[in-house]
Amino acid sequence: MSAAALQGAGWSAASASAGSRCGRAASSPFLRSGPQRGSARAAAAEGDVEIGVDAFSTQVPTSRKGHGVYIFWDFDNMRPPAGIEHIWTAHLKAAALEFVADAKAEGGGVLGFRAYAREGTVDAAQREALKACGVSLVECPKVAESSDFVLFSDVVDIFPRLTQAGEAAAAAATTATSERRAAVMVASRDEGMHLCLDYANARCAITVVCGEFLKAAHRPQYSRALNEDGELGVTPSYWNVLEHVAGKSLKKSVMGKSKLVASAGVALVWDSKRMFPVPAGALAACYDTSGAGAEEE
């Protein structure tokens, strides 16, 4: 596979926020354990498993898996270079499906996948590329924050209308039958998107945010350490830099005081400046729009 085919973002870390009234376990933000030298994880870094997705899958507890997942992609905020939209889509789908109990079950898998961009900012080639991957492009008015508003409205629309009197009972019932909970993943680094996650949390959804929270890892002073043992995927040296940057960030504002991260049950770190292996079968699944994730135009 060529470098061009591998180009694009992947994700490699996660964070859990404080608990909510729907029973999420309270914990401090953390980076999930990455490959370490001299351990079983080192084998993963050397390519024995698909890095970034398969290496993470065994660490997602059942309590954080729903019957299906809705993906809301802030395309204005996280836009792939032209020609590799399918790579980004494959990574986003693969990451989102980690939070689905059984992607092959009836009514499971990707329940909806939409990308949001201001009108006139997506050319015909990108529009067709997204459509081929089963992503519905929602073009928003040319006004400030229009994509945010439309995305939030769509998050609201996926939940049944609840009266104030019946909301508590419905939430209790949803919690009791956790296997019927849906997951909501918002792909964005826009802090304003925390409102979408707050709304989903109030309705006991499993909430996930995916964004570029650790851009500082690619500052020039980290370049040598970042690529010490390779420039592809999650390697021990790459992971060590992420942990170093995240450790400092938690004391400042990049992740520790982020409303977006605080509102999510899980936060995934997206890295658009590094190449990652495409998970096995992810590209084929990306172009398979016959499932529940395909939407009518």
Q: Main attributes?
A:
single chain; 297 residues; alpha/beta; seven-stranded mixed beta sheet; disordered N terminus
Describe the structure.
33% of the residues lie in helices and 15% in strands. It has a 7-stranded mixed beta sheet, with helices on both faces. The chain has 12 helices and 7 strands. Helix 6 runs parallel beside helix 8. With 297 residues, the chain is an alpha/beta fold. The two termini are 32 Å apart. Residues 1-58 and 162-166 have low confidence and may be disordered. The radius of gyration is 18 Å and the shape is globular.
What is this entry, summarized?
This protein has 297 residues and is of the alpha/beta class. The chain is 33% helix and 15% strand.
Outline the fold blueprint.
Elements: H1 3-6, E1 10-16, H2 40-45, H3 54-57, E2 68-74, H4 85-97, E3 110-118, H5 124-132, E4 136-140, H6 146-157, H7 164-176, E5 182-187, H8 194-202, E6 206-211, H9 223-226, H10 236-249, H11 259-263, E7 266-271, H12 282-287
Helix pairs in contact: 6-8
Low-confidence stretches: 1-58, 162-166
Shape: globular
Question: β content, as a range?
Answer: 15-25%
**What is the typical, i.e. mean, pLDDT?**
73
Percent in helix? 25-40%
Q: What does the radius of gyration come to?
A: 18 Å
Strand order of the largest sheet: 1-7-6-5-2-3-4
Number of helices: 12
Q: How many runs of DSSP E, i.e. beta strands?
A: 7
The biggest beta sheet is recorded as: 7 strands, mixed
Q: Determine the N-to-C terminus distance.
A: 32 Å
Oligomer: single chain
Q: What is the SS-derived class?
A: alpha/beta
Question: What is the string of helix and strand elements?
Answer: HEHHEHEHEHHEHEHHHEH
